[in-house]
Amino acid sequence: MAIVRFKGYGEIEVPVGTSILEAAQELHAPEGYACGGVCACSTCHIYVTKGSNLLSDQEEEEEDMLDKAFDVRSNSRLGCQSKIERDGEIEVEITRESLEAYENEHPQERGKYVTWR
Ligand code: FES
Q1: Which of 14, 24, 25, 75 could bridge to 29 as Cys pair (CB 3.0-4.6 Å)?
Q2: pTM for the whole thing?
Q3: pLDDT over 90, % of the chain
Q4: Which of 19, 20, 31, 43 is the best mutation target for the ligand 1 pocket, counting ligand atoms within 8 Å of the beta carbon and taking the most?
């Protein structure tokens, strides 16, 4: 089992094979997923701050999609493409881009996670 901590939203224990997006959904953490997790958007954009070596490698398709994301950093990943491959602790931060997407997908929660200007 692996522990995934979402900065500001708590943590959850999940089995190997789970994606970071699936872990977020189980925890009810506000990670966007406009395309439903098929690597066709960048709304599940996260920063992996610990345990990136426990995740599946980044494939070309994910890199291409991240090229279109906002505020991309060296630790950027797409949550739906980041599968947990080994037990351990993983820490992630949900990007503003992803929080905004989540709020757009869940209008009833609008204003809960992002300060809109
Ligand atoms: S949900 Fe669209 S790329 Fe991850």
Answers
A1: 24
A2: 0.96
A3: 97
A4: 43
